[in-house]
Amino acid sequence: MGIFDIFGRNKSKSIDQKLNLDWMHTDMHSHLIPGIDDGSKSMEQSIELIRRLEGYGLKKIITTPHIMWEFYKNTPQIILKGLKALRAELLANEIKVEINAAAEYYVDEFFFEKIKNQDQLLTVSENLILIETGFINKPAILFDTIYELELQQYKPILAHPERYYYLINDKKMMHDLLDREVYFQINLLSLTGFYSKEVKVFVEEIINENRIKLVGTDCHNSRYLDALETLPKSKYYEKLQQLDLLNKTL
């Protein structure tokens, strides 16, 4: 066997490597309750997506519908009703992956008032709460919101920080958030170039700093999972599996 045969075989092995997420155990960011946000549009689509996620080796899914006042006026009651229906369909289809629901809260004045009023908030686990912002500009009340959450004993998780251009362009702000011990959750898709090359470069920087606490698929539809299956080609695929992530404890 020649040296070029060895290189060719290794390259083929890399390309053919199957996506395996059993090391992750729990996917804590997705949009799988049908018809309530920009994720799954039907129960049939939800079942198909969850079947694929289970096939990657995941044992548990915590799906996180958007709560965004102007677009997705979800409530805990709406989300938990959808979860109940989804669980029934999973049982009927003999899909055994465990599924729970939290929410992905958009940081704005409406969310800030919910916190101040001590409204019921859905958490990923115990006091862990997933928050997001707009992609371009930092919300003026971002740090006030984090402070108010902490006052009420919540632990904020910032969803996909690598996608926020105000952080890409202001690394000091990123470190200010980390110094406040805000947990960072990255999207696995960011490592595939799914969003942009700039996002891919930034998420690699965050991983290199060993500041990631959680990872998620942020699955909305089959296009997301098709792209996710290219993750083993990333040079960070193995590195992800060595991170000390909280996913395994959820």
UniProtKB/TrEMBL annotation:
<protein>
    <recommendedName>
        <fullName>protein-tyrosine-phosphatase</fullName>
        <ecNumber>3.1.3.48</ecNumber>
    </recommendedName>
</protein>
<dbReference type="InterPro" id="IPR016195">
    <property type="entry name" value="Pol/histidinol_Pase-like"/>
</dbReference>
<dbReference type="Pfam" id="PF19567">
    <property type="entry name" value="CpsB_CapC"/>
</dbReference>
<dbReference type="InterPro" id="IPR016667">
    <property type="entry name" value="Caps_polysacc_synth_CpsB/CapC"/>
</dbReference>
<keyword id="KW-0378">Hydrolase</keyword>
<comment type="similarity">
    <text>Belongs to the metallo-dependent hydrolases superfamily. CpsB/CapC family.</text>
</comment>
